[in-house]
């Protein structure tokens, strides 16, 4: 007979518990048919729509990461409004017939900027993330306590939808500090009454690093491999229970690059059949599953992460479409229908899967023009004057850009080195003319050789392309310039540093006074407006534009980049009005012929050569 195991399983009369083979909800076996969907990647106006689409695919459980960096953007400044109103998201989920698995972090990976850590952590004295480090544990405890104040009342023990809470996230892929993982466990046990679990890769080293006494151990990835590994390598009875594939990957991540194509299973019958077979195997095995991602959403603004691959930065795209069953705009894909078919077949006569809601068609916006409105270097803030340039976090900045200006006092020549390594993309200007680009997406970034004369002005515009979210390099993630700037063997001293977080676009000048757009000019903001006959979602394309940022009605939609694979930005209809939609585009590399934008109803993915490739 299966017995209740360990403190993680709670008590026999708890509303949600488990034995060796089954999760139990109100005493009856409960099989999680789940999917990952993170509220902070979705406009809150669309939460109910996306959750109803999850229920219509046959899901009964939503797994959700929470992004600490959005909730506490600066130390002690808490924001649980708008897309951070996690409590409201969970309440809507329950209204739509869905339960919740809470994945609060503090580290969540998830291709999110620094794995969800706020950038200001890097400036806390003595800070070391994801270790038994007092500054990190203190900061994490405050975050977890504030989050619990919001959502702990929504546990199933109080009649709410939260069934379980995850401890840390795939810690075995990072380290084996069990004192740290134990501290995370104890913080959550003090805040929640429901069972806790860990989620790690399906291998011996992953499980050895991440499993902790008193917490149910689960795996992700290939379910057969993970389930076998869990029962082979986890021997602590307090960590054993029913099997859950906590992240079953339907596709993979999109990163910027001329040779980096969009990941999708649409049109791939073999891949769709494999997904169906895997889901059917898990469900027939009386085990549970979470589709990663069910719906990816969008890394709005500057919230994408970077991956560190082959000694280069693989920057994640603004889109987190992920080739998911529900695409970035909330429309069902071939994978959605295939998985839904499998779930309904498994449920059989017990099926209670609702019909798929009818979606409004995406709209088109006819081509409209934009005009230069203000030059970036004409609206610089008051600078910090320094002997050596410093990183953006030291100036209280988290995201966006930072510019460093140096007036040459002694003639010198040689190759430019902007700090220890480029962090991440450096546009180099001499006397207002762009002379090169140093980009860390390449294993060997371009070499920019300078011949500077007395009185020349050297300007380095550095773009944070996303802090690393996975691997050993995520530990130290300062942005801007870290270390000395050298030209040849010469260290350049005496800098003016201009933080450019670009939280809002600048107001257009009555008359544009900046440089003419050209292949070597400094960045320019363009402005325009457009009307729509019917409000709806669309995809915004910028034909011929090279790289930059787009705001519509003051909302930062994210980055565009000609290299692809993303060639358009998702523009939700909830951001629009019928008349006078204001658009601002930052063109980092403005071209005279790139002046228009268009809204399309069918997204096109593609790649182009990088005009700045080394």
> How many beta strands in the DSSP annotation?
32
What kind of sheet is the major sheet?
Answer: 8 strands, parallel
Number of helices: 9
The value of Rg in angstroms is: 25 Å
Q: Choose one word for the global shape.
A: globular
Mean pLDDT: 96
Task: Describe the 3D structure.
The protein has 614 residues and is α+β, with helices and mostly antiparallel strands. α4 packs parallel to α5 and α8 runs parallel beside α9. The strands form 7 sheets. Strands 9-8-7-6-5-4-11-10 form an 8-stranded parallel sheet. A 6-stranded antiparallel sheet has the order 16-25-17-22-19-20, with no helix packed on it. A 5-stranded antiparallel sheet has the order 15-26-31-28-29, with no helix packed on it. It contains 9 helices and 32 strands. β19 and β20 form a beta hairpin.
Question: Care to give the gist of this entry?
Answer:
With 614 residues, the protein is of the alpha+beta class.
Could you outline the blueprint of secondary structure elements for this entry?
Blueprint: E1 16-18, E2 23-25, E3 28-30, E4 33-36, H1 47-57, E5 61-65, H2 68-71, H3 86-95, E6 99-103, H4 134-151, E7 162-166, H5 178-189, E8 196-201, H6 204-210, E9 216-220, H7 223-233, E10 244-249, H8 269-284, E11 288-292, E12 306-309, E13 312-315, H9 334-347, E14 365-369, E15 371-375, E16 384-386, E17 401-407, E18 412-418, E19 425-430, E20 433-439, E21 449-452, E22 457-463, E23 485-487, E24 490-491, E25 495-500, E26 524-530, E27 538-541, E28 547-552, E29 555-561, E30 569-571, E31 581-587, E32 596-600
Parallel strand pairs: 4-5, 4-11, 5-6, 6-7, 7-8, 8-9, 10-11
Antiparallel strand pairs: 1-2, 2-3, 12-13, 14-32, 15-26, 16-25, 17-22, 17-25, 18-21, 18-23, 19-20, 19-22, 23-24, 26-31, 27-30, 27-32, 28-29, 28-31
Helix pairs in contact: 4-5, 8-9
């Amino acid at each position: 007979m299966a017995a209740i195991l360990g403190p993680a399983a709670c008590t026999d009369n708890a509303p949600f518990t488990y034995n060796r083979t089954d999760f139990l909800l109100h005493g009856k076996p409960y099989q999680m048919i789940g999917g990952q969907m993170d509220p902070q990647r979705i406009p809150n106006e669309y939460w109910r729509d996306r959750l109803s689409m999850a229920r219509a695919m046959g899901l009964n459980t939503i797994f959700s990461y929470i992004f600490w960096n959005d909730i506490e953007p600066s130390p002690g400044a808490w924001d649980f409004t708008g897309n951070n109103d996690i409590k409201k998201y969970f309440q809507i989920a329950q209204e739509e017939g869905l339960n919740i698995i809470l994945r609060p972090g503090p580290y969540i990976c998830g291709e999110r900027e620094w794995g969800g850590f706020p950038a200001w952590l890097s400036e806390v004295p003595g800070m070391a993330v994801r270790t038994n480090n007092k500054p990190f544990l203190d900061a994490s405890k405050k975050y977890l306590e504030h989050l619990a104040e919001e959502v702990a009342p929504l546990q199933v023990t109080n009649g709410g939808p939260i069934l379980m809470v995850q401890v840390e996230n795939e810690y075995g892929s990072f380290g084996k500090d069990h004192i740290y993982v134990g501290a995370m466990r104890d913080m959550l046990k003090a805040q929640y009454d429901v069972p806790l679990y860990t989620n790690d890769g399906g291998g011996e080293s992953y499980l050895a690093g991440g499993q902790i006494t008193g917490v149910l151990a689960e795996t992700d990835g290939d379910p057969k491999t993970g389930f076998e590994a869990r029962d082979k390598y986890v021997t602590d009875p307090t960590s054993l229970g029913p099997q859950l594939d906590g992240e079953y990957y339907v596709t993979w991540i999109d990163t910027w690059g001329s040779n980096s194509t969009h990941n999708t299973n649409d049109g791939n019958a073999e891949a769709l059949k494999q997904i169906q077979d895997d889901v059917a195997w898990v469900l027939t095995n009386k085990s549970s599953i979470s589709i990663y991602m069910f719906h990816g959403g969008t890394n709005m603004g500057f919230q994408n992460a970077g991956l560190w691959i082959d000694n280069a930065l693989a920057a994640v795209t603004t889109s987190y479409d992920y080739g998911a069953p529900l695409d970035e705009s909330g429309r069902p894909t071939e994978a959605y229908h295939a998985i839904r078919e499998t779930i309904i077949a498994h449920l059989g006569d017990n099926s209670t899967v609702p019909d798929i809601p009818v979606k409004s068609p995406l709209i088109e916006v006819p081509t409209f023009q934009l005009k230069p409105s203000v030059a970036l270097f004409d609206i610089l803030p008051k600078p910090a004057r320094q002997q050596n340039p410093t990183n953006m976090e030291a100036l209280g900045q988290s995201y966006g850009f930072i510019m460093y200006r140096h007036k040459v006092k002694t003639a010198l020549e040689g190759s430019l080195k902007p700090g220890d390594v480029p962090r991440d993309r450096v546009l180099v200007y001499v006397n207002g003319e762009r002379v090169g680009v140093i980009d860390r997406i390449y294993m060997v970034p371009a070499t920019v050789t300078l011949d500077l004369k007395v009185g020349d002005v050297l300007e380095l515009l550095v773009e944070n392309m996303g802090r690393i979210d996975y691997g050993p390099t995520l530990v130290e993630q300062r942005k801007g310039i870290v270390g000395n700037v050298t030209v040849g063997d010469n260290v350049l001293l005496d800098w003016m540093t201009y933080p450019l977080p670009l939280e809002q676009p600048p107001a257009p000048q009555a008359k544009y006074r900046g440089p003419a757009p050209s292949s070597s000019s400094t960045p320019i903001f363009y402005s325009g407006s457009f009307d729509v006959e019917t409000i709806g979602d669309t995809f915004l394309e910028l034909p011929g534009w090279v790289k930059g940022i787009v705001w519509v009605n003051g909302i930062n939609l994210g980055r565009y980049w000609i290299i692809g694979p993303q060639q358009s930005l998702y523009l939700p209809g909830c951001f629009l009005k019928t008349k006078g939609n204001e658009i601002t585009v930052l063109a980092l590399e403005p071209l005279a012929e790139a002046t228009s934008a268009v809204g399309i109803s069918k997204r096109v993915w593609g790649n182009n050569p990088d005009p700045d490739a080394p």
